[in-house]
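Researcher: I'd like a structural prediction for the single chain below. Treat it as a standalone chain; there are no partners to consider.
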Amino acid sequence: MIELENKTPLSINEIFLNKIASSLTNKHIELIITTNEDIKIINKEHRGIDKDTDVLSFPYEDMPMAPLGSIIISYIHVKQKAEEFGHTEDDELALLFIHGLLHLLGFDHEVDNGEMRLQEKNIIEKFNLPNSLIIRTEG
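Model: Treating it as a single chain, here is the predicted structure.
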């Protein structure tokens, strides 16, 4: 179940995002859609990187009944990438959500041997989505 906080005018297909989430976990997930300015501040505070980004994930401590974590997505990145890649904002939001969710589940494409890439590919195929973040950046 997603607990949504949308600080933007972006329309959110919560039913679809909940379907994706429930296919991977039964834990609650906080999803925040925000501005580039806000995500830049969060990125600097928590990762020491002074720039905006498309998606951030913050897993919570693994305890019974605890939520899985928080996913924060920049609405400007959703709009820009949807336009750049020629698909809908709903699709781009779902792709970023999947990416963030996989990080909450412990995947890390920066250090793994392609496991996150494969998992992401399987999920986007299952939900009939366009190529995603790490798949479209493969060389």
